[in-house]
Amino acid sequence: MSTEKHSYIRIHPKDNVLVALQNLPQGAEINFEGQTFKLTDKVDAKHKFSINALQPGGEIFMYGVLVGKATQPILQGGPISTQTVHHASGEFHLGKRKLDWHQPDTAKYTGKTFNGYHRADGSVGTGNYWIVVPMVFCENRNVDVLKEALVDKLGYKKAKSYEGDVDQLIDLYQAGKSVEEILNADIEVTADKAKSNRFFKNIDGIKFLTHEMGCGCNRSDAQTLCGLIAGYVTHPNVAGATILSLGCQNAQVSILQQEIKVRDANFSKPLVILEQQKVGTESDLLKQALKQTFAGLMQANQTERTPAPLSKLCIGLECGGSDGFSGISANPALGYVSDLLVTMGGSVILSEFPELCGVEQELSDRCVDEDKANYFMQLMTTYNKRAEADGSGFYANPSPGNIRDGLITDAIKSAGAAKKGGTSPVADVLDYPAKVSKPGLNLLCTPGSDVESTTAEVGAGANIVLFTTGLGTPTGNPVTPVIKLSTNTATATKMPDIIDINCGTIIEGDETIQQAGERILDYVIKVASGELEPKSVQLGQDDWIPWKRGISL
């Protein structure tokens, strides 16, 4: 697939639709493989139009897979829209293993390293964070008190402050200005810059992971929450942790300790666990938490960055606010990065199972053995059935923004999203909140929700997350750098405060997928070494949402 400098493209030889790379007017002449026809209507960039006439029930293919069926006649050159097409995807079954793949040339990266934090379990962090986590939402307030006490004093305040802007508004009001005059006033931005005077020079931050779970949920969700927290406690980017427990909740400390042992049998990081109902007063709890956390920070500060091979990278692959260019530019570029890293012995995580609908056959065939293939298909089938039982299904995954920008069925969105995983065999299949233990491509069952999925990928061990977006999404993570890649130049230009890398160059024909992939990996190495801070880190975008699967009791 090459976009060069064309106005439309067919992604796969089996496809019977073309994708507009720029706005095409009604009546535009299309010359394609010996055929000449005109567009029946205008087709905006990112949207699709039919190569041949289709009757109701006619199958529509993109990326070489079934992505929808016509609901009414579609003329040759007619647009593909929610009014003319509904979701459809191919059936899947256990097939033959297809493990042959073309490994990319990695000579450029021979001997390359990144400077990371080496842990006792052999993993390497791209950051060095202390985390404070409640076992139950009842402790959120105490976590907030610790945040207020520690962050600013120790030099970790990153969030922008717009207090100066409010002062300007107050001055205008006191000067007698009207509502209209205030709305039209030119307010000077006075956002604070992040502090650089960290008290502990080798600790990148103290992060506070509050949530609304831990009790009232079913036992399975309590166990899962403990597993997720354990994933963060044992994460290579985490130096140590403070855990606050009330005492009577479903998510017991004993369960957390078991989950930590499952992930790291020889766990040796500084770990502070305090239970309010054992300690007594809130004041005593907070005093102990402050002293023990400070002592833990002193220990954690002794670790410094040293060189590590690129095989120690574990990259989470994520997308959000996707558009019709996602599967053509940024996602395939991530796929090439994935293949590069897998070739070098690293790990990548492809998640968001609702966005793998329609490509189950390809991915299951790529699983290294039949057990993993069956497990993947079982997870997909069970997840979709649960969604349908709740009155929905994978077909309802595309958001209004996705649909507006060309992703009109879940299968279209999924086929493009799966490109992030590249072409290598699937080394392992994991259910949330399991941790990655094998190098290569890992499939992790998570929801399609950006933040829940990113939270899960990091809990599984991702020490870098690459996040593609077409519409612009300001998502981050407390302990792992989230690098944002725009699928198009317009979004990168409009939202430079959240976009790190522009992949619109592929759409414009100025760069190949392979060239963009190497550019991305070069950027990743700098971020992993602490030489660059992606925008999500600069903005303090610390999003963290555990996935709640069950009902509340």
- Count of DSSP E strands? 23
**Between the first and last Cα atoms, what is the distance in angstroms?**
51 Å
Total helical segments: 17
As a percent range, the share of strand residues is 15-25%
Radius of gyration: 25 Å
pLDDT averaged over residues: 93
Strand order of the largest sheet: 19-20-18-17-21-22-23
Model regions low in confidence, pLDDT < 50 over at least 5 residues: 191-195
Q: How would you classify the helix and strand content by structural class?
A: alpha/beta
Short description:
This protein is of the alpha/beta class and 553 residues long. The chain has helices spanning 140-150, 163-174, 179-183, 219-233, 253-263, 276-279, 282-300, 330-343, 360-365, 370-389, 400-404, 410-417, 450-459, 489-494, 504-507, 513-528, 535-538, and strands at 8-9, 17-20, 29-32, 35-38, 48-50, 59-62, 65-70, 79-80, 85-87, 113-118, 124-125, 129-134, 205-208, 238-245, 271-275, 306-309, 314-319, 347-350, 426-431, 440-445, 464-469, 482-486, 501-502.
Tags for this entry?
553 residues; alpha/beta; 4-stranded antiparallel β-sheet; 17 helices
Secondary structure blueprint with pairings:
Blueprint: E1 8-9, E2 17-20, E3 29-32, E4 35-38, E5 48-50, E6 59-62, E7 65-70, E8 79-80, E9 85-87, E10 113-118, E11 124-125, E12 129-134, H1 140-150, H2 163-174, H3 179-183, E13 205-208, H4 219-233, E14 238-245, H5 253-263, E15 271-275, H6 276-279, H7 282-300, E16 306-309, E17 314-319, H8 330-343, E18 347-350, H9 360-365, H10 370-389, H11 400-404, H12 410-417, E19 426-431, E20 440-445, H13 450-459, E21 464-469, E22 482-486, H14 489-494, E23 501-502, H15 504-507, H16 513-528, H17 535-538
Helix pairs in contact: 1-7, 4-5, 8-16
